[in-house]
Amino acid sequence: MAEIDVESLFNYAVKGQWREALDAYNKNPETLEAKITKVEDTVLHVAVHVGQTCFVKSVLDNIDKEVSLNILCMQNSKGNTPLHLSAQLGNVELCHNMAKRDPKLVCFRNVEGETPLFLAAVHGKREAFFCLHENQQRRRDDEEDGSLLVRKSNGDTILHSTVVSEYFGLALQIIELYPNLVNSVNQDGLSPLQILAAKPNCFKSSTRMELLQSIIYKCSIVDEIEETYDIRCNEADTTHHYPMNYETCATFLSLLKSTSIRKDDNAASNDEENNVSRKSEEEQAKKLEKKRYLFPPNWGATIQFLTHMMKILLIICGFGASWIGKIQRKKVKHILAKQVMNELIQRTCSSSLYKHDHTGTSNINSSPSSNNQSKEKGCYQKIRRTDSPILIAAKMGVAEMVEKILETDPVAIHDVDADNKNVVLLAIENRQPHVYSLLNERSMIKETAFRQVDNQGNSALHLAATYRSYKPWRIPGAAMQMQWEYKWYKLVKNSMPPNFYERYNENGQTAKQVFISTHERLAKEGGKWLSKTSESCSLVAALVATVAFTTSTAVPGGPNQNTGYPLFQGRLAFNIFAVASLVALCSSVTALVLFLSILTSRFQEKDFAMDLPRKLLLGLTTLFTSIASVLVSFCAGHFFIVEDELKFAVYPIYAATCLPVSLFAFVQLPLYFDLSLAMIRKVPQRSYKVLSHESHHH
């Protein structure tokens, strides 16, 4: 085919000129089957990709049925048919149209072994997924049903993929439709629950929020989402009776009438759940019993109204609606992830396929699609080398999952990995305070799991004493990291039996020796930072002390020659000068002594826990006080030499003089807060931004 024809076909597809495309087809029947792009796309591929729905439908309706089926089966270089692209983009209308013409298209696989049904799930296209699911159900081909849900290249099922992509709402529906997928594993031997356990940022316990973010997060009312499983292929529900930019106003107005219709809505939703979700009445009753309201249910409309008013106030105060919406979406994600987690744990633990062997992992049967026995054996061996969900959750800090698994299956506390490390050892080794606190509160676990040792003879105290390359704590700086490390070591030590303090591992080291050897470099870095900081601050403190001493001896106006008392004694400005100069001298000398004491410190590991940070905090406070006092005393003394007519004019200049001190204080505030919180807190705060699979694969 000539190059000009290829270019014309491309333009026809992009612009939706289906009559011209049909004319080209009438002249040359092979036109629509031609590969017109570098990735070997046909006209229909391009049209689907650019959203020309009417063009695709018109072309298919106006050509021969056999030809249309041949074109729909055409694959590009990635193995994708037009139905693959439609499912990937979530085009429900085209998915329904194509699958209706040839139901076998749902079974076509691309190079990665993905079916259109699989692609719709991977990309979170809920409506397209259910449309293809309905067409699949109509075929009733039991042999193909299982394999349609699996990616052949790595064995991931649609449940694996939706959990990885964090489409938890769709994952809930998939669990209900395909309960067998809960126990499926991919070629790496990972189940959906294990993949979810490795995603700590999807749970509240592993999400760091500032104070204002935390307040908005708590005030956002998000009920547990009750998923419905409507698989109809229609678009009626997606239409709006108002412009999209009126959505906020419509939502706000709907609150005013929510009280009157709440009962009717509840009744309607209950009927729909009974008919569609296919859950038993006992399960619904259990869910209702578990729900705990912070306020009476009939106050719902009032609380929602107050919440909306608070959002409006925050927006007026300068906080964007997108910022507030981001926090709400985060809360929705956390709730959905927890619901998926609960469903996976309940279905996995209640299944006979889940058996603990107490040697490390749980035995989960492979995917229903794997018929080859050797394949199953290979997957099973991989699972044996893979950590169980509770171990992964302990490593990654997902306290919600650890708690739920222990409630559902208490025997899981005995799970160990290949290094013979249980939940407690992994949580302590990976510095997970939330998981540690959860386990430490349970007396039965303290008596058994806390006494576990790994293959190297390391107890929990040895692992708490071992420092690894990444920085686990939220606070910045080597000295602060060292402070938290020692506090973590002492925290774990207090929860251990006394006979574990001097326990030796296979290398002949006690926990204290391990702490000193592994933290040697961090202690040197922290000591170096403290020394440099103290040197700089002591120099400034010495200069301030010199100025303060000179200022305190120079009395404004001089003394009275007859009495010896200052001439300006009793005036307000003179009193301010006298007090400020004295405070400046005392605080600067105190700061100098504190910084010199830091410089002469031996920088032992235990000094970083309380002694050195306290000296640094007091030193910075007194240094700031001395600088501020010097400036105040200068302004008060200078006030006497200004003429009366200019006294009001010098106030802005005095304010400008104090500006550097304010900037200094503002810059030092984060360090102040970190030092203060570190001294108050007993349990350190984990940093989840640096969390990686390094700890997961350790």
Automatic annotation (TrEMBL):
InterPro entries: Ankyrin_rpt (IPR002110), Ankyrin_rpt-contain_sf (IPR036770), PGG_dom (IPR026961). It comes from Glycine max. SUPFAM superfamilies: Ankyrin repeat. Residues 528-640 form the PGG domain. Residues 362-373 have a biased composition (Low complexity). This is PGG domain-containing protein. Residues 264-283, 356-378 are annotated as: Disordered. It comes from the Eukaryota. It is found in: Cell membrane. The keyword Metal-binding does not apply. It is a peripheral membrane protein. Pfam families: Ank_2, PGG. The chain crosses the membrane at residues 305-324, 537-556, 576-596, 616-641, 653-673. One of its GO terms (cellular component) is plasma membrane. Keywords: Membrane, Transmembrane, Transmembrane helix.
